[in-house]
Amino acid sequence: MKYWGIRVLPLLFAVLSAVASGAASAPVWVDSPVARLEALALIETLNAEILSSTSATSTLERWCRDHALAQPAVVVAHRIDTAAEIPPAAPRQDLQVSAQEKVQYRRVELTCGDRVLSIAENWYVPGRLTAQMNRLLETTQTPFGKAVQSLGPHRETIAAQLLWQPLPKGWELRDTPTSLMANAQGPLQLPQALFEQRAILYTPARRAIAEVNEIYQRDLLEFPEPRLPEP
User: Does some domain include residue 76?
Assistant: First the structure.
């Protein structure tokens, strides 16, 4: 029995440590009308910040730093494309490239620490970038925005949409938000994808260099649920 205790106690300690670590890495939001309003406000805020920014990467790094998602708060791009893709007609038209001009495809997970913040598809024109920029994009985990930063690019949005509605349609017309309270005090179940943006990146001379399609992920809200002060 004594020997059993010696063997099991370290294992039990390891399990408890893993559980504690998992709990710390995945904060639970309690499902309530207030939590859903908070989630909606945060998603809308970040969506607007990216829409008005010149660089989604810098906005994500600031978000990661402000909400303590990782230390250091550095966004890196992990390639997840397995093969070259022939660019569809729409990106070629948006980028205003000729039939002979090469368009490169890059699909990445943008992460901060172990959080996946967005999944981004990128069609870019290597002939409009420097050799150093192309090398960074092909051989490193540098996000596109950082790789081309010296060009001074800006984003122009083609489309943006929320992919999750925390509040059901017509919630403001109901006396009792019963559908919101169905899971009261249980965990708020966030979908994988929160919102999406599609944009074209231009140089100051308004020369298109890339088109991006970004799907922003639930790890953006992987921090403790905000607590509004009592009135």
Answer: yes
